[in-house]
């Protein structure tokens, strides 16, 4: 079962990297996933430690935003919030 799309804007009004379609993949038991407007898929896993996962996501997004020439991020795996894994 999928949740309806949700659009959120940052405090600055920009929505370019905010989630556009959060979903729960109940069929595969993969947990919560977010599709960012950048196209990156964020894997949150079970709906636990959400505060830590959101802090980790904000930190990752802040760090990669300032890297010139960085490859496009395809997946940000935050199932273990203290150890995010990025794939490009």
Short overview:
Helices cover 18% and strands 22% of the residues. It is built from 1 helix and 5 strands.
Give the tags.
alpha+beta; globular; five-stranded mixed β-sheet; 88 residues; 18% helix; 1 helix
Write the layout of secondary structure elements.
Layout lengths: L22 E3 L5 E5 L5 E5 L4 H16 L9 E3 L7 E3 L1
Parallel strand pairs: 3-4
Antiparallel strand pairs: 1-2, 2-3, 4-5
Description:
This protein has one helix at 50-65, and strands spanning 23-25, 31-35, 41-45, 75-77, 85-87. The termini are far apart. Mean pLDDT is 76; it is low at 1-16. It is of the alpha+beta class and 88 residues long. 18% of the residues lie in helices and 22% in strands. It has a five-stranded mixed β-sheet with strand order 1-2-3-4-5, with helices on one face.
Q: Mean pLDDT, rounded to whole units?
A: 76
Main-sheet strand order equals 1-2-3-4-5
Order of helices and strands: EEEHEE
Largest sheet: 5 strands, mixed
How much helix, percentage-wise, in residues? Answer: 10-25%
Count of DSSP strands: 5
């Amino acid at each position: 079962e999928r949740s309806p799309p949700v659009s959120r804007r940052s405090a600055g009004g920009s929505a370019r990297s905010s989630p556009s379609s959060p979903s729960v993949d109940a069929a595969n038991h993969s947990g919560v996933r977010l599709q960012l407007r950048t196209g990156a898929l964020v894997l949150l896993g079970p709906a636990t430690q959400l505060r830590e996962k959101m802090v980790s996501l904000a930190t990752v997004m802040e760090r990669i935003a300032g890297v010139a020439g960085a490859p496009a991020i395809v997946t940000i795996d935050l199932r273990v919030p203290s150890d995010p894994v990025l794939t490009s």
